[in-house]
Structure formats: C-alpha cells, structure tokens
Amino acid sequence: MCKKYFLFVLLISLFACKKQVDKERPEFIGTWFGHTTDNYYKLEIDENSNVKYTEYSLLGGGTSTHHGVARANNNALKIGRFRGFKINEYPHEIDTANSNNLVPYPDMFSMTSKKANWKMVLSLINFYKADY
Fold it and tell me: How many CA atoms lie within 13 A of 2 on its CB side?
C-alpha cells in the first residue's frame, strides 16, 4: 500500500503544473535554432505541442534526437519525459533591424537565411526563430 501511494504522489508531482505549450505558451511553437562552440541545436515544436529536439556535434560526435510533448512551467521546458531545459528567458520578439542572428529558412528551391525575429534562452543557450 505504501509503495502504491508513493508512486501515485511521485507521478502527480512529475506532471503537476507543467502545461502543454500549445495551450499555455504558444510563443514556444515554431522551429528554433541555437549553437555553442561545440554544438548546433534545432528545436521544432508544432501546434499540438509535439517536439523534436536535435543536437548536432560540431566536433564529429554525431547527433542525438529527443521526441515527445513540450511542456512548460515557470522555470523549465520539458521535452518528453527525460530531456528538459531551464528557461533563462522566455520567447520574446526582437527587432530584426538590430539583430544579426540568422536562421536557416527553406524556400521552394534552396536553403536561405532569414533574420531572427524571436529569441529565447534555454539552459544558457540562445535560441532564435524567424516566423515571417
């Protein structure tokens, strides 16, 4: 009986106060790009809170991908059950006139770049998106 109660409390605490981003935080929806000196990151969140997070090693270490549902609370963005980020800055619009951050943008025939007009910081990594 005690184990069942503990498991119930543990499950409730894991999922408490984390809302799917499509319902509570739609500003997270979109394709975000970030990089550090060692890695390149792509975070794709769709209108149903489905997320695909890919981390590409720039040092030849390969890639890792995580899938799941994107959930956010006051200080964390969770991807599925096992991957998460601390939210240092929530998504916010930035002025394209003052931004030099470019993000890949596929058009009909090739891959081009656009100036980012949104920024967020997750676990001290700057992520950018262009939604125009």
Answer: 0
Are residues 101 and 115 in contact, defined by beta-carbon separation less than 8 angstroms? yes
pLDDT digits (tens, 9 = 90+) for 11-63: 444 454 457 877 778 899 999 999 999 999 999 999 999 999 999 998 888 89
In the DSSP assignment, the letter for residue 81 is T
Residue type, 39: N
Q: Is the pLDDT of residue 118 over 80?
A: yes
In 23-93 the beta strands, taken as DSSP E runs, fall at 30-35, 39-45, 50-57, 63-72, 76-79, 83-93
CA distance 92 to 121: 10
Q: Enumerate domains of the chain plus CATH numbers.
A: 16-129 (2.40.128)
